[in-house]
Amino acid sequence: MAKAGAGKPTRDEKKAARAAKRAQGKQTRANLLEAFTMTRKEDPRFLPYLIMLVVGVVAVLLVAGLLSTHGTYGLVLTIVVAILGGIVAGMLLFSRRAQRMTYAKADGTPGAAVWVLQNQLRGDWRTEQAVAGTAQLDAVHRLIGRPGIILVGEGAPHRVRSLVAQEKKKVARVAGETPIYDVIVGNDDGEVPLRKLNLYLNKLPRNLSKAEIGGVEKRLQALDRGRTPLPQGPMPAGAKMRNVQRAARRRS
Predict the structure, then answer these.
(1) pTM to 2 decimal places
(2) CB 191 within 8 A of CB 185
(3) Could you state, in order of their start, the residue ranges of all structural domains in the chain?
(4) How large a percentage of the chain has pLDDT more than 90?
């Protein structure tokens, strides 16, 4: 018979869990501070906009609260709500400006599309990084999702278009009736800007069921077995925003 309390964490395990939680919290705060500092440095309008927004939201909520509440309790509640409202508004502005700045700095950096595909894309997507590429770090990445098969190219357009066309022919041999889409990440005509890649992919029509996605993936895996492995780009799988920011600083 199992002893009572079996399976409960020991004192050392609880201590280790608390230490890990503290370390994670410290890292999160460090990441936020790094993102805030870089956003303030790269975006001169960020700090004035942030101050005006927070002060404005707090003032509006204070006035609205004072006009509709009475007594000490109402005053305290109004102040708390106004401060929280200002903080939330400030965080939303910070998030948007930081994301815009990160996309702008990462635009054109090898591996930036992979960062979007692996960290910003939501839903049931199967991502295969750099199924085709060149020594100049041009690359074609492959996605399998509800729309079908999507080939995402990044790099010099005159080289990437050829890579995508070649990869599309290979994939078509095993795709059957599965739709195949292709997109080039860039800012020229017929290309999709990095910041809009997530939105573009999520707007594609849903052609496959979840069960069909698995079948397509197996067929493409069989195709991949005959390939020569390509070196992965400079942005590793699971890269976080700070990795893009560091690469952007080295580039600037």
Answers:
(1) 0.61
(2) yes
(3) 17-106, 112-235
(4) 27
